[in-house]
């Protein structure tokens, strides 16, 4: 199974880039993981919030295959413990899902078309994080989940 993380906008802060690189490097020993950073449109065009979300959705859809299992990162989604999240990933592996695509929205969240297409919505907390910071938190949780599945000590350290 492959895992792709789509983000809206490049990661700007060096401390986040460094943290993400650290965990992506580790992750690659466990799974085929890809980070795709899509352009954030607001900087180039004068768009309303809804127009921006619709344009972002168009870009996101271009990166999706019909068989992809799409999971939106959304504070209103389902909350898991790290062990439960590892179980979720394991179930998808057993079900032979080819690719899980997780998406982190832009500053305004997701267009309705993405909510309709989503197979799941995952919340990391009821709190709202910046779309920049949530990347690092999520990538670390994927790494944590995979070490849990392997029975490695990281989760208990
Ligand atoms: C600043 S938030 C957008 C908040 C937006 N007002 C909304 O209602 O969705 C930007 C993105 O970060 C992600 N995000 C922020 N907090 C999150 C959380 N607690 N759990 C999961 N994803 C989160 C989501 O992907 C969201 O689209």
Q: Which regions are unreliable across 5 or more consecutive residues at pLDDT < 50?
A: none
The shape, in one word, is globular
Strand content: 15-25%
- Reading the helices and strands in chain order gives EHEHEHEHEH
Mean pLDDT: 95
What is the rounded distance between the termini?
A: 27 Å
- Name the strands of the widest sheet in spatial order: 2-1-4-3-5
- Figure out the total of helices: 5
Query: If you consult CATH, what is the topology?
Result: Alpha/beta knot
Rg over CA atoms: 15 Å
| CATH C-level name | Alpha Beta
Tell me the helix content. 40-55%
Number of domains: 1
CATH architecture: 3-Layer(aba) Sandwich
Bound molecules: S-adenosylmethionine
Question: Main β-sheet, in a few words?
Answer: 5 strands, parallel
Estimated structural class? alpha/beta
How many extended strands?
5
Write up this protein.
The structure is a single chain. The chain is of the alpha/beta class and 157 residues long. The chain has one domain: SPOUT methyltransferase, trefoil knot domain (Alpha/beta knot). Helices cover 41% and strands 22% of the residues. It is built from 5 helices and 5 strands, in the order βαβαβαβαβα. It has helices at 14-27, 49-62, 82-94, 112-117, 133-149; strands spanning 2-8, 32-38, 69-79, 99-104, 120-123. Strands 2-1-4-3-5 form a 5-stranded parallel beta sheet. Helix 1 runs parallel beside helix 5 (133-149) and helix 3 (82-94) packs across helix 5. The longest helix has 17 residues, at 133-149. It is globular. The protein starts with a strand and ends in an 8-residue tail after the last helix. Bound molecules: S-adenosylmethionine (SAM).
